[in-house]
Design goal:
Helix content: 40-55%
Strand order of the largest sheet: 1-7-6-5-4-2-3
Number of domains: 2
CATH superfamily of the largest domain: Type I PLP-dependent aspartate aminotransferase-like (Major domain)
Mean pLDDT: 95
Low-confidence stretches: none
CATH class of the largest domain: Alpha Beta
Order of helices and strands: HHHEHEHEHEHEHEHEHHEHEHEEHEH
Structural class: alpha/beta
Radius of gyration: 22 Å
Length: 401
């Protein structure tokens, strides 16, 4: 118990790094320091009348861990405090978060506009999955906000973007697109996983819903799958909660506990990774065997001014294209000693991937070109290794090209 007059008794007055250690904590009668894992499926009601009241929403309490769970609730509250959101819902994976956020807002006959440059799974949901249920979609070049305005229809319900984009690190002007979205009575959904909640605040820039793959930076150590959707209480506790409750893309209590532990160290990890990413970006930008290097806070980025205005830091991802195409990219990646070949990101370990043959392999050459994904493009997620060691590793790899 703290003194009621202590200003930090009010969680809203705590800084982000403090909230990520203490936010949402609910201790049991045992007074544990680390959050408890309520690793159970069901809950016992004191009476039949109490069960009835809970199902009607007239009495607080948990019903079933597919609907809600104390450990998952702690994760949701902590994530919401960091994001500055009224409410949040955890999901089993990041793709479950994106799919649920979109499906909850649309009905047959509706229309969705999305940026063309998306993670492969997200683009599948927009251009293949939603149309199966009578929801049309239009893909546009998200770098120009006017493209969204031109694509809007009377039945457009949602605009969906990710920024920076996966894997090319293009940017979408969130404030401009939010204005266009709301002028047409639609909702803006933003996948903010690359920027992290530390370096970009989509809700403050006008977004209605924000999604994350919590598997990435929030866990940050390659352990647990998870996702989270954040926004207003009305949106989260309305159709989004109903979709999760009735269709079951729910977060595991154990994964929620792992992610709570990840959130405690998120600022320490992401700051260190960002500092290293800046050094790696500077190295790659000047290398003669690199055709293009993309990092939002590097002056060479074509949307540098927007990045400086919209993102506090450039975050942990670097994209670069090597001369010589796919063969050169493979030679570089295969020669690395520290940086692992994998399709995850936001991990403590540095990871490199070749998008054209992995996360985006199902697209045609023309579709890849439309997203800016060239045969020589590599996506680098910078981890917690010493930055000089990472540069030495990349330098050796480039020597093999």
């Amino acid at each position: 118990m703290s003194h009621p007059d202590n200003p930090l008794s009010d969680p809203a007055r705590r800084k982000a790094q403090t909230m990520l250690v203490h936010g949402g904590t609910e201790r049991s009668q045992h007074g544990e320091t680390s959050e408890a894992i309520y690793f159970n499926s069901g809950f016992v009601y004191p009476t039949s009348g109490s069960a009835e009241a809970r199902f009607k929403g007239e009495e607080p309490g948990h019903l079933y861990s597919r609907f809600s769970n104390p450990t998952v609730e702690m994760f949701q509250q902590r994530a919401a405090l960091l994001e500055g959101a009224e409410a949040a819902r955890g999901t089993a994976t990041g793709m479950a978060a994106v799919t649920t956020a979109l499906m909850a807002q649309v009905r047959a006959g509706d229309h969705v506009v999305a940026a063309r440059a998306l993670f492969g799974g997200c683009r599948y949901v927009v251009e293949t999955y939603l149309p199966r249920w009578g929801v049309e979609s239009t893909l546009v070049d998200g770098r120009n906000p006017e493209n969204f305005a031109r694509a809007m229809r009377p039945n457009t319900r949602v605009i969906f973007v990710e920024t920076p984009t996966n894997p090319t690190l293009d940017l979408v002007d969130l404030r401009a697109v939010a204005d266009i979205t709301h002028a047409h009575g639609a909702l803006l959904v933003v996948d903010n996983v690359f920027a992290t909640p530390l370096w970009q605040k989509p809700l403050a820039l006008g977004a209605d819903l924000v999604t994350y793959s919590a598997t990435k930076h929030m866990d940050g150590q390659g352990r647990a799958m998870g996702g989270v959707i954040l926004g207003s209480r009305a949106l989260i506790e309305g159709d989004i909660h109903t979709i999760i409750r009735q269709t079951g893309p729910s977060m595991s209590p154990f994964n929620a506990w792992v992610l709570l532990k990840g959130l405690e160290t998120l600022p320490v990890r992401v700051r260190a990774m960002t500092e290293s990413a800046e050094k790696v970006a500077n190295f790659l930008a000047d290398h003669p065997k690199v055709e293009v290097m993309a990092y939002p806070h590097h002056p060479s980025h074509p949307q540098y001014d927007l990045a400086m205005a919209q993102m506090e830091r450039g975050s942990t991802l670097v994209a670069f294209s090597v001369k010589g195409g796919k063969n050169a990219a493979f030679k570089l990646a295969d020669a690395l000693a520290l940086i692992a070949i994998s399709n995850n990101l936001g991990d403590a370990k540095s990871i490199i991937s070749h998008p054209a043959t992995t996360t985006h392999q199902r697209f045609t050459p023309d579709e890849l070109a439309g997203m800016g994904i060239t045969p020589g493009l590599l996506r680098l997620s910078v981890g917690l290794e010493d930055a000089d060691d990472l540069i030495t590793d990349l330098s050796f790899g480039l020597d093999q090209v």
